[in-house]
Amino acid sequence: MDSVYVQNRKSTVLFCLFVLVTLSKYNVNIGFALKPYMIFLFALLLLSFASFYVYKLQAYEVLLLLFYLFYCMTGAFSLYPEASLRIMLGVLLILVCYFLMKYVIAEFHSGSIKRALTGAGILFNGVSLLLYMAGLQAVHFQFASDVEIIKWGVMIDRSYPRLIGVLDDPNIYVFYNTLFFTYFLTNSGSTKNKVGLLLSTLASVLTFSRGGLIAMVAVLILYLLITRSLNSLKTVLSFVFLFGALALIAHFMTNFNVFTILTERADDFLHDGGSGRFSLWNRAFEFFSSHPFAGIGAFNFLEYNSFYYGEALYVHNTFLEILSETGMIGFCLYFSFLLLVLLQLLKQKIHKQEPYLFLTFVGFLLQMMSLSLIVNELFFLYLALLSGYLRNHQSEESAR
């Protein structure tokens, strides 16, 4: 009985970590964003400092550290060193948090991690959907607006009611939700996980994020190809049918037509240049062309774009942002890191044993093509989960 109590208490710690990572919007600005999960991790470090241990690095982790070292070095020679200094401090802080995440997750086996993911995923999506409904009520289901409006969990963006939930960007929401969506999709045997899958699907679709939804569809297709199971196909089709039924009910009750909005979003893609992303990508390549080896410097694209084009905007493509800011050297380091992660996933047959980890990585890569995510805590949480799984798997192999 005592061991069960202790394990449940430990699982609560992991659950809190997952939830607090999703609450990064609610931070304290002290020159940099001090986020809830950071405070939580440092508090855990103080409580268990004597037993803190830095685990052996995986090969891809070494490459990642080398990339960030070079990324920060480029700031020393950049045109806007103040901007580089800010991101250097952010990189240092999140890397410290990454090692703390690894330490916390190392104490748990797969079952405890999955229980924590179930609880955190349901809470994250459930609260976000409630905030979205509160936002729709607050704007009285009137979406026509020339300016961006944020009410509770909804963002009115070019007359589209987009879910942001507990975050502040609908596109980032889908990125965060990828971990939960793929987990629920590949572990849909229990009632809780079925509920989680429905909630995560609804929330992701209601963001009306074109890049995010394309990634979701690609992940679904890949999941069916990996499993080649009739049950998996039945699960996917049943949830598609259920979602369609809920969308029709919402349309008749509130005149809120999800299908019409999705169609209009797809049509807009032909006219808005990917919400201006195509122009930003061209500019990123221009900056890279003028600084091909070491780039324009860490976190300098924003400043360059503001100076030359009068727009303080990010690249909205992680790979092009790395290429423009760190040149071919930094890009090769980051690409090698991603390639090593993919090879580890395939070598250890994780796509068969824990497919949600494989599918999440694929989903992340697809969304990085339309988002700037050089430093993101959810991505580091994923890497910490993957590192813990690989370490346990390698230990079991050694024991055998």
Structural features:
400 residues; mainly alpha; three-stranded antiparallel β-sheet; two-stranded antiparallel sheet; 16 helices; 71% helix; transmembrane
What's this entry about, in short?
The chain has 400 residues and is mainly alpha-helical.
Structure description:
- The protein is mainly alpha-helical.
- It has a domain at 116-249.
- It has helices at 2-21, 36-47, 59-74, 81-105, 110-138, 170-186, 191-206, 210-227, 230-254, 258-268, 277-290, 301-309, 318-347, 350-353, 355-368, 377-399, and strands at residues 28-29, 33-34, 149-151, 154-157, 160-163.
- The chain has a three-stranded antiparallel sheet with strand order 3-4-5. A two-stranded antiparallel ribbon has the order 1-2.
- A hairpin with a 2-residue loop joins strand 4 and strand 5 (160-163).
- Helix 8 packs antiparallel against helix 15 (355-368).
- It is globular.
- The two termini are 30 Å apart.
- Mean pLDDT is 89; it is low at 1-6.
Proportion in β-strands = under 5%
Largest sheet: 3 strands, antiparallel
Radius of gyration, in Å, reads 21 Å
What is the number of E strands?
Answer: 5
DSSP helix fraction: over 70%
Write the layout of secondary structure elements.
Blueprint: H1 2-21, E1 28-29, E2 33-34, H2 36-47, H3 59-74, H4 81-105, H5 110-138, E3 149-151, E4 154-157, E5 160-163, H6 170-186, H7 191-206, H8 210-227, H9 230-254, H10 258-268, H11 277-290, H12 301-309, H13 318-347, H14 350-353, H15 355-368, H16 377-399
